[in-house]
Amino acid sequence: MAFAESWRVGFELELILGDLNDPRFEYFNSDPMDVASHEYCRAVAADLTRFTGKRWLAAQKKQRRTGYFVYPEYDLDPLDWPEGTVAGVELVTPPLSIAEADDLRRMIAEWVYEVDGDINSYPNRFSLGSGWHINIDPGEDSRRFDEPKILLGADELPPCWALVGRIISGPGQFDRLQDEYARAMEPLGLCRGEVKSGRKHKPVRGYLAELRAQEVANAKQAADLQAELARLRDRALRTEVDRRVAHKDRQAAASAKAAWEQARAKVEAERLAVEEDRRLIGRLFDALGHTNRVATKFMQMVKRFPESRWSEETLMMAEAASAAAGPSLDAVGRLRDYMALTQGRGR
Q1: Is the pLDDT of residue 196 over 60?
Q2: Residue 70's beta-bridge partner residues?
Q3: From residue 286, how far is each of 75, 175, 273, 278, 291 by CA, in Å?
Q4: How many other β-carbons are positioned within 10 Å of the β-carbon of residue 343?
Q5: Quick check: 116 pLDDT over 80?
Q6: Distance, first Cα to last Cα, the chain
Q7: Is the pLDDT of residue 263 over 80?
């Protein structure tokens, strides 16, 4: 059987508590007790019994028998306690299995939060003299229980464990017990010291100070990581904005190019149409010149004939000349108009 399987754990917990929501103790909110009264210890025991289901008893002196006891705490100085605190008490439990001790520890922590808030939960100048002390009973007749053998922890309400110890018996026995103890308490967050380092154990207060410093460092590192993450997010956002702007620019350039191609095609089509119109106008001018020359010759020929000889024969000749001149010369029409005009003058 491993050593730890037979070990038993007993708590000694010093606390600074308020009026327990009991009108009998409201007066002491502004003037704390130098030493907790028996009546106050009985009130604490009754409330613990209600909350944990264990039978707690109030006592003024240390009891030889084991049990769940509430004692006045004599080592606390109430002169500068914060307003709302009434008295200091010490809770003592019998040796329990590790599982039972852990369950009770959690219930006591919850009870303290319920009746007191958080003054006992974090190291401060009011609670330097209070905290958890846990006695380990090896549980075998050959190793009789002795309080100075192994002590564990202080200020443990937020689970925070550290191991300190005293010489047990025999070379290497303490190391073996520490190994067994560390394995058994590992689920609770025990920090195992370096084996055979030759250094003294760290004081609990120094160990907790290191933990707090590490918490501060971790918080700073987390803040730095958050700042770096925000910077990377901002950079990614700017990159995405630049990408979208570049995409819009490419789309606008493509649209402008397509519009330019369409405009160029339209201008080219208009240019070709103008060229075609220019060629057509050239042909028309050529035809008009030819027509004018034919018409001039025809009119000169007509004038050589007297008006009395104008007849259908003349009109036929004019039609022939008009056909020869092209569609742009209406020679027949002009001749008929001229004949009508001259005949009208003759009348």
Answers
A1: yes
A2: 58, 91
A3: 133, 127, 20, 12, 9
A4: 11
A5: no
A6: 160
A7: yes
pLDDT (0 to 100) of residue 204: 64
Residue 148: predicted pLDDT:
38
CA distance 229 to 61: 59
User: Which ranges of 53-169 would DSSP assign to H, the alpha helix?
Assistant: 98-116
- DSSP H or E stretch at residue 80: none
Q: Distance from CA of residue 99 to its chain's centroid? A: 39
DSSP 23: G
pLDDT tens readout for residues 92-105: 888 888 788 888 88
Q: Which of 11-20, 56-65, 176-185, 280-289 has the lowest mean pLDDT?
A: 176-185
Average pLDDT value for the chain: 73
pLDDT bucket at 336, cuts 50 / 70 / 90: low
Question: Which single residue is written with the structure tokens 């380092």?
Answer: 197
The position carrying tokens 């909350």 is 51
Which distant-in-sequence residues (6+ apart) come within 8 Å of 212 by Cβ? 123
Q: For residues 329 and 321, what is the distance between their CA atoms, to the nearest angstrom? A: 9
Contact in structure between 136 and 148 (CB atoms under 8 Å): no
* Contact by Cβ (8 Å): 11, 112: no
Q: What is the CA radius of gyration of the chain?
A: 59
Query: DSSP readout, 85-109?
Result: --EEEEEE---B-HHHHHHHHHHHH
Per-domain boundaries in the chain: 3-201, 266-346
For the segment 11-23, the average pLDDT, to the nearest whole number, is: 83
- Which two three-digit tokens encode residue 133? 């002390």
pLDDT of residue 209: 83
Distance (Å, rounded) from C-alpha 99 to C-alpha 285? Answer: 120
Tokens 């003058």 correspond to 345
- In degrees rounded to 5, what are phi and psi of residue 3? -55, -45
